[in-house]
Model the fold of this input.
Amino acid sequence: MCKTRIYLVRHGMTEWNDGGKMQGRTDVPLNQKGITQAKLLAKRLANIPLNAVYSSPLIRAKNTAEIISLTHNLEVVETTSLMEADFGKWEGLTLEEIREKWGNALELWYEGKAYPPEGEGILEMQSRVVEFIENIPTRHKGEEVLLVAHGGPIRAFVCHILGTIKPFRRIKQANANINIFDFYEEWGWQIVTLNDTCHLSEEIISEMETGY
Done:
């Protein structure tokens, strides 16, 4: 039975993550905590026999991928298919600020019924993400592949496996988490792990010791 495994990872923390702001396509770099998280991810994945590393070209994802790939001597291949949704005029705003100005438009976006002003619909984002990931088992049959992306694309792929976009906003995706999916030719995708952050316990202990 041939199995292809993907490790779908969210990038480390940024200042906008910490401030609760919508980032989308805005190219916000990792903050110091995000760099630490990426290093812990690299440590966690060091013994995984990865065959390829793909990443969103946005710097927060790309830098996370580069830190991980150093221990595997693999080139990071950038793809716009894994980019976060384009939130248009919502970028840089908190959820509260968006709701204050646009009412329930954000909730309608989650359901695929609205677009951010000058932005991208959730179903459009899901379509490009799914198209790319669905090709991985053909391109890397029987291999193990790392994908570094963003919260939105990861949630969208989980919803694709579940067959509905409805649970999108109920799927937790912490910074620097690991999601594992296996693809079997006989029946397709299987969810193995979601939002695994046990490797970040070392970071938590360090913060407690330093009073961060």
Summary: Confidence is low (pLDDT under 50) at residues 207-212. The first helix runs from residue 15 to 18.
